[in-house]
Design a protein that fits this description.
By secondary structure, the protein is α/β, with parallel strands linked by helices. The protein is built from 16 helices and 14 strands. Helix 10 packs across helix 11 and helix 11 crosses helix 13.
Amino acid sequence: MASFPVLVLNSGSSSIKFGIYEAAGDQRIKLFEGAVDGIGTELGKFWMKDGEGRKIIDETPALPNRAVAFALVSDALHSGKFPSPLAIGHRTVCGGPSISENQHITTELIDEIDSHSALAPLHTPIAVYIMREALKLFPGVPNFAVLDTYFHRTMSELVKAMPIPAEFAAMGVRRYGYHGISYESIIHQLRPNVPEKLIVAHLGNGASMTAIRNGECVDTSMGLTPTGGIISGTRTGDIDPGVLLFMLNKIAETGVSAKEAADQLETLVSKKSGLLGMSQLSNDMRDLRGAIDDGNVQARLAVDKFVWTIQKWIGSFVAELGGLDMLVFTGGIGENDIASRAEMCAGLEALGIRVDAERNNVRGAAVISAADSRVIVRVIPPAEDLMIVNHVMRLLAEQPSPESALEAQIA
């Protein structure tokens, strides 16, 4: 079967990650990957690696805005050094209340996603921009939206519904859940031995957890937006609504407009809170661990709050699942922070969770539970790009036209 290059685009609030994968049958081979980091900051970085991990671009350009950043990606992809994509998959954090399925991107779909950008204000605007640019830069190449919310569509109405007036529920205000592509990739890697009762903790600058029964989402920590749930690098996580009202009233006292007050509150809860806000130092766990070693009390409190919150979610999910067979850590902190994993599991012996200190002294994939632990505890790196490529190939195969790009390529 002929190879089929697929471009994956994964945009964040200040970054654009991308990769080109060769899809042939069941094979998925990474050809190149790269990222533009630090958009809108003075710490811009642009790098690319080949499939073997060798750096082929490593630059520190000025990145004043997303247009400049994506131009670097576009120039690299059009340089002739890499295969031109025959399909493009876009990580899409949230499509809004009417878009729950991964699907082919049209201008109408982009407009619909854009109209609900308030649900993921740090991610959707740049994702929408890149979708529009990709349609122009690669004319005729099919683009597909792969949703973070897709995995969470199996949550019951009881779990999705919020205790708010019906008029707001009718506007689509409910729990959506995020990091779904990461969770789906963990299930993919566990097959065919997916445990019945599973909790996955995706812990990075953005952090969330999901309760999974027989491979399907039962509940997840994030709600209407990625700001809810667990304390994250710069996000509050769940918080008393009265705190938001207090903060909003204090902002309003400065005489700003209602829109300006709302924007300032959004900045406070999404970009200035969490580990950064509590520590007044950093949103990076590595910095906080170093500060703790130096006796920084605020850093210690921030990390303890992070750990405590996760332990509470584990306990609640065990109750919801009626037990637990496996706990999986993933994401940057989940994969690499030995101390955080140990602290999160300490004291959870009553739930059947015991971690072996020697097994836990590792970064990357591993089984870290003790021999006598009733619950298996694992570390599994996510494979989000792989899942996006898989969805792209599935959606191409499902296209109604017999002259679809996929069929034409493999004929």
